[in-house]
Design goal:
- The complex is a heterodimer of chains A (112) and B (116).
- Chain A starts with a strand and ends with a strand.
- In chain A, strand 5 and strand 6 form a beta hairpin.
- Chain A contains no helices and twelve strands.
- With 112 residues, chain A is an all-beta fold.
- In chain A, strands 2, 5, 6, 10, 11 and 12 form a six-stranded mixed beta sheet that branches.
- In chain B, strands 2, 4, 5, 6, 9, 10 and 11 form a seven-stranded mixed beta sheet that branches.
- Classes of the chains: A mainly beta (112), B mainly beta (116).
- At the A-B interface, strand 5 and strand 6 of A face strand 5, strand 9 and strand 10 of B.
Chain lengths: 112, 116
């Protein structure tokens, strides 16, 4: 069975600083990896995805993520955080059957 | 149109009530999903429909009854719920299910359900 670990429950960064959110996955086959963002009381919005090919993927809102198979990681990065980036971030892995497993999430707080 | 809509936004129901949640998408997606999300927790998969047929049921109690009347609509019928069923219920859709690959899911804003 697949699993996802997000080691950081809560991260605080200053506006304009860089950000890295960690994600480690466990899955026996080719992983389909996603990062989603959720603002309070809202649904999830897809930031980016990795299926195959280039291991550095670009997403919306200036986010990028790097897939590292040797480390089973898919970390999310942003060079300069904006106050509007404060939200909950979920990493997820999909199976071919469409079943998604989410990490427990990382809450991002942005200091002015 | 890349939107998944859900109604109602909020729902308060008693333990003896029967109510339904509705989800709609017009992206031509053939897979649709129900998730349950408790506060400060990740979404938990409940059901998956593929081509209007139930594909995955994650051992959800029978007081939750899904229905997919057509490729654009997904309902979740609720009956005799318990207070612990109070949560945000999210609907999502994706292109389709394939044994060869996977597709990203588009989520609706959710229905905030409170069971009293």
């Amino acid at each position: 069975a697949q699993s996802v670990t997000q080691p950081d429950i809560h991260i605080t960064v200053s506006e304009g600083a860089s950000l890295e959110l960690r994600c480690n996955y466990s899955y026996g086959a080719t992983p389909y990896l996603f990062w989603y963002v959720q603002s309070p009381g809202q649904g999830l919005q897809l930031l980016l995805k990795y299926f195959s090919g280039d291991t550095l993927v670009q997403g919306i809102k200036g986010f990028e993520a790097e897939f590292k198979r040797s480390q089973s990681s898919f970390n999310l990065r942003k060079p300069s955080v904006h106050w509007s980036d404060a939200a909950e971030y979920f990493c997820a892995v999909n199976t071919n059957a469409g079943k998604s497993t989410f990490g427990d999430g990382t809450t991002l707080t942005v200091k002015p | 149109d890349t939107e998944v809509t859900q109604t109602p936004k909020h729902l308060v129901m008693g333990m003896t009530n029967k109510k339904s949640l509705k989800c709609e998408q017009h992206m031509g997606h053939r897979a649709m999903y129900w998730y349950k999300q408790k506060a400060k927790k990740p979404p938990e998969l409940m059901f998956v429909y593929s081509y209007e047929k139930l594909s995955i049921n994650e051992s959800v109690p029978s007081r939750f009854s899904p229905e997919c009347p057509n490729s654009s609509l997904l309902n979740l019928h609720l009956h005799a719920l318990q207070p612990e069923d109070s949560a945000l219920y999210l609907c999502a859709s994706s292109q389709f299910l394939s044994g060869a690959t996977s597709y990203e899911q588009y989520f609706g804003p959710g229905t905030r359900l409170t069971v009293t």
